[in-house]
Amino acid sequence: MSHQETTLDCLPPGAVASVVRVEGEDQIARRLGDLGFWAGTLVEVVRRAPLGDPTQYGLRGYRLALRRVEARRVVVRPGQVP
Amino acid sequence: MTPRSVLVAILAGRPNAGKTSLLMHLTGSPQRPINFAGTSVERVESRVVVEGTELQVVDLPGIGSLSALTRDEQEAIGFLQNRAAQGSERTVLCVVLDAVKLSVELRLLAQLSGLGLPLLVALTKNDVARASGRPVDATELERCLGVPVLEVNALTGAGVAALRQAILRRAETGRPMPLDIDPAAVAARVQPGSAAPARSLTDRIDAVLLHPLLGLPAVGLVLLAVFQLLFTGADPLIKLIEAGQAALAAWTVQQVPAGALQSLLVDGLIKGLGAILAFVPQIVLLMTLVTVLEASGYMARAAFVLDRALSSVGLSGRSFVSLVSSFACAVPGILSTRIIDNERDRLATIAVAPLMSCSARLPVYVLLIGAFFPPRYAALVLLLLYGLGIALAALVAGVLRRTLLRGGHSALLMELPEYQRPSRRVVVGQVWTALREFLVRAGTVIFAASLVVWLLSYYPRPAHIHAHYEARRAEVVAADPTAQKAALLELDRQEQAAYLEQSYLARAGKALQPVFAPAGFDWRITVGILAAFPARELIIPTLGILYSVGEVAADSYELGSLAQPGASGEGLRARLRSAVDAQGRPVFSTLTALALMVFFALCSQCMGTLATIGRETRSLRWPIFTFTYMTALAWVCAVLVFQIGSALGLGPART
After folding, report:
1. Of the spans A26-30, B198-202, B275-279, B594-598, which averages the highest pLDDT?
2. Does residue A22 lie in a domain region?
3. Which is nearest to B25 in space by CA: B152, B166, B128?
4. A64–B contact, CB cutoff 8 A
5. To the nearest whole percent, how much of chain B has pLDDT over 90?
6. Are B305 and A34 in contact (CB < 8 Å)?
7. Which residue on chain A is closest to B101 by alpha carbon?
8. Is B129 part of the contact surface with chain A (CB cutoff 8 Å)?
9. What is the largest CA-CA distance in chain A?
10. Does B118 sit behind a cis peptide bond, omega within 30 degrees of 0 on the bond before it?
């Protein structure tokens, strides 16, 4: 019954997903890890900015803005993990 | 006095964790910048004596991880590594953790523990976490981590005394081990529900301020309010400073006999000091507004709303704060670029920040608009000049990011903090820091440069001018012993102008004039441009002398005077309108005035800004580049305005 894996930028506002992994080994990937994108972390897509980018996410008790390019690095599985 | 032992406590943590408020409560004294051995970086530090030990508390810029993205992070991490490498004697690392997002904070703690400095944890904002139903069990956290955990309230100061004691005790214990913890597991244990997103009042405010339709107008309204306050609020203070300066100059003239010393004091020292002080009200007011917006959490929202627009021209949402600050003064604007995630974005922001019309340009605009434009067009012209700077900043940033600063992964990883009431102590501290940076970095350079300009405008003073005017004074006295005072004053003014015309500065202006001829500038305007090199508004007194009106009445360049034509400050305005060249043709027309204002809107006549760019980029390349491109841009635009306007028949009458 597991949902299809996708990337964070593809989710519409209001969606909730759990992180599978962060793609890449570079500084941005490391920073996404330092910001709380760990396997199993729940992420909520809160809203897009008025001009369409960046997007506000909610995770681990706080709010974070990411541009589409960075959000694409985060592989997620939509829907809440029980 | 008994010798005291010294202990250094470093406050480190993620941005918005409350480090700066904590510093204020820990020491209760104002911050002071210091240079630690081995670093070139000034860190905010403050000291207090506890039980015979001098505790030096250092506040580092916020860091999100040990792999630095921003200049602020590089400096903070470099400082920490440096301290760790020197050995951990008498140094305690106090890691400030925000309870609201504990799991993410614990990851940073684990990284910081690898430095090998003795550490303890100050847990902040647990009251906020408690209110949202996710309190952190501090006792359990201390057990899991094996290091002291002290709960503190950075706003009220509760728990700070205990923290101070704990820091002293921590220094006595042995060499620490890196923490081997799983942040998610520890957080799950001490804070139920730590993995899930939270909901609070902040989200309800954001629903309005970040609304798809209301978000942009909200930013516009905030900006409008800031400018309104800036223009109306700073005015009385600037008047006060100018009055003080005039009084001091008058007093000096009475005390010191006329001559080189008097001129150095009045035209060099006092004028230079006045040039610096006149910026202070606007800088203080604008930095207060920016700091309040920043500390309340709104600036991150404005950056969120505008990021798309700013990134399309090669900047970042984070550039917004710097650009807004630059409307008061580019110096604090450039300093605030340190929080930008990408070095190329940061350099592009630094390069275009001086194109924002700062408070030094305003008096120049007001003088020329007042002299050459009917009052009903005044606001429109002013708006156009501000708009020109903004439009060209977008253009230049776009070109830079496609050429010199091409590539580089431009990222935005920006926390949107909980809204909060800004702490007054923090606001006062930040504004004082910005002001001190301005006074130290820009003020000294502006001051030195205005002394050089005085020197060049005062000498060589050929003796034949003095002889000529002495003879004419004698004639006046002989002809009419009763009504001589006004006539003598007029002769004094003419003598002053004659000296200035023979000065090194005027010679340089005359030599350079052909360069500015296509923009319609005569040699006197050229001299004004040269004299304005230390700081833009210095063109006004120079024009005052060159057009022989002596001291320029303050009303001729005050914003309020635009609304009341014919006010007492008409002196310089009238002189500018009626000035003629050697052939009797008018020097100034509305078109010349417009070209001159366009030149001033875009040129980089500010030593303080250039010096700050040099320090912040640690290079000579960027200040030279900024000066060159801005001067070229200013010249091209001024020439375009004058030539196109002349072709349309708007120029001064030609023979």
Report:
1. B594-598
2. yes
3. B152
4. yes
5. 21
6. no
7. A61
8. yes
9. 36
10. no
Does B103 contact A34 at a Cβ distance shorter than 8 Å?
Answer: no
pLDDT for B334-364, tens place per residue?
988 887 878 888 999 999 999 998 878 887 8
Our count of domains for chain B comes to: 2
The number of CA neighbours under 13 Å toward the Cβ of B433 is: 21
CATH code: domain of residue B66: 3.40.50.300
Q: Is residue A82 part of a domain?
A: no
- Confidence at residue B38, expressed as pLDDT on a 0 to 100 scale: 35
Distance CA B245, CA B272 (A): 10
- Residue B618: inside a domain, yes or no? no
Contacts of residue B641, defined as CB under 8 A and 6 or more positions apart, other chains included, come to B519, B591, B594, B595, B598
Contact check, Cβ <8 Å, B184/A34:
no
Residue B307 in domain:
no
Spell out the long-range contacts of A36-41 with Cβ–Cβ below 8 A and sequence spacing 24 or more: A36/A60, A36/A62, A36/A64, A36/B101, A36/B103, A36/B104, A36/B107, A37/A74, A38/B183, A38/B184, A40/A81, A40/B184, A40/B195, A41/B184, A41/B195
Pairing of strands B5-13, B91-98: parallel
Judged by a CB distance cut-off of 8 A, whether residue A43 touches chain B is yes
Which range marks the domain in which residue B51 is found? 5-198
Q: Which residue has the higher pLDDT, B173 or B213?
A: B213
Q: In this structure, what CATH number is given to the domain that contains residue A28? A: 2.30.30.90
Q: Is residue B495 part of a domain?
A: yes
Distance from B305 to chain A by nearest Cα, in Å?
Answer: 5
pLDDT above 50 (res B568): no
The angle formed by the CA atoms of residues A45, A46 and A50, to the nearest 5 degrees, is 115
pLDDT band at B469 (very low <50, low <70, confident <90, very high): confident
In a domain, B36, yes or no: yes
Which residues of chain A lie closer than 8 angstroms to B184, CB-CB? 38, 40-41
For residue A44, list chain B residues with Cβ-Cβ distance below 8 A.
197
Number of structural domains found in chain A = 1
- CA A27 to the chain's CA centroid: 17
Residue B325 tokens read as 């600050």
Name chain A contacts of B136, Cβ cutoff 8 Å. none
- For residue B36, pLDDT over 50 is answered with no
- Among residues B129, B163, B198, the one where a domain terminates is B198
The answer to whether residues B255 and B241 touch, using CB atoms and an 8 Å cutoff, is: no
pLDDT bracket for residue B23 (50, 70, 90): confident
Inspect the interface and report whether the beta carbons of B101 and A62 lie closer than 8 Å.
yes
Across the interface, whether the CB atoms of A50 and B216 are under 8 A apart is answered yes
Q: Residue A45 belongs to what domain range?
A: 6-66
- In chain B, the residue whose alpha carbon lies closest to the alpha carbon of A35 is B104
Where a domain ends, among B171, B198, B225? Answer: B198
Looking at the partner chain, which of B67, B213, B416 has a beta carbon nearest the beta carbon of A56? B416
Q: What is the ipTM metric for this complex? A: 0.94
A77 within domain boundaries: no
Highest-confidence segment of A40-54, B14-28, B57-71 = A40-54
* A20: helix, strand or coil: strand
| Residue A32 domain-assigned (yes or no) | yes
